[in-house]
Write a structure and sequence with these properties.
By secondary structure, the protein is of the alpha/beta class. The chain contains eight helices and twelve strands. It has a six-stranded mixed sheet, sandwiched between helices. Strand 11 and strand 12 form a beta hairpin.
């Protein structure tokens, strides 16, 4: 579904991504982790078509993303940025309807189907009560729900989550994790960039560790303390509590 080949991105004289090769299959659930400045968000923005001046190639469904228009790419990929980036002075309804923009044409305005899908998403994610509020007046939890609903409305097969648990309390984290699992059950391909390894490691299928713009490891989820040691220079441990897999910092 996504095939990244030799992806390199330089900003002035600094190399942000250095020869990344990564293949994501349909229905995968990936966790990508690494230190701040490792290149994780740059990787996401490259996949989503927000960065173009990279070397190498990104293929989605066998087609080079360089050949996609913004609308075509938006029908396949939804990028949910970090909390700080999602603060536009628009109402929730306006944000959600924007998710249907890739399906509009010069002769086609929003249809009854578009509004029905929006209403369904608001019910699904419990945001109907604040649909007329400006999104930048919402709490962190409410914004996350709007972001998820927007991805649902966009009806894409690939969803990129960039640090989705930032500023969320434990209850909100649990709720968001359940919503992710629902999306996965519906056949979505999920890729999450996060420092919250303890939360996500038990539920993902595959992991990628990035340091200094290079992959330390990418593939099936395995617990190998050396991956974390090489990535963060700290150790994690692994075990089972009440039949559930856990991973934790070994200090």
């Amino acid at each position: 579904m996504i095939d990244i080949k030799h992806l390199t991105y330089r900003l002035k004289e600094k190399t942000i991504l250095d020869g990344i090769d990564l293949k994501v299959e349909k229905g995968d659930f990936w966790l990508i982790f690494g230190p701040n400045g490792a290149g994780k968000t740059t990787l996401f923005k490259s996949i989503a078509g927000l960065i173009h001046q990279f070397e190498g190639d990104i293929f989605i469904d066998g087609e080079n993303t360089r050949n996609h228009s913004k609308k075509e790419l938006a029908r396949k990929v939804s990028y949910l940025p970090q909390f700080e980036e999602f603060s536009l002075p628009l109402t929730v309804r306006e944000i959600l309807l924007a998710g249907r923009y890739p399906y509009l044409s010069f002769l086609r305005d929003y249809s009854r189907e578009d509004f029905d899908i929006m209403e369904e998403a608001m019910r699904e994610f419990g945001i109907a009560e604040f649909q007329d509020r400006l999104v930048n007046t919402l709490s962190g939890v409410e914004r996350k729900k709007v972001m998820l609903a927007s991805a649902y409305i966009q009806d894409v097969s690939i969803i990129l989550f960039d640090e989705p648990f930032t500023f969320l309390d434990p209850g909100a984290v649990s709720n968001l994790k359940k919503q992710m699992l629902k999306l996965r059950e519906r056949g979505k391909t999920l890729i999450v960039v996060s420092h919250n390894i303890e939360i996500l490691f038990p539920i993902v299928d595959k992991i990628a560790a990035i340091r200094d713009g290079r992959l330390v490891y990418a593939g099936q989820k395995i617990f190998n303390p050396e991956i974390f040691k090489e990535t963060y220079n700290i150790r994690f441990n692994h075990g089972t509590v009440n039949g559930k897999e856990i991973i934790y910092l070994d200090e």
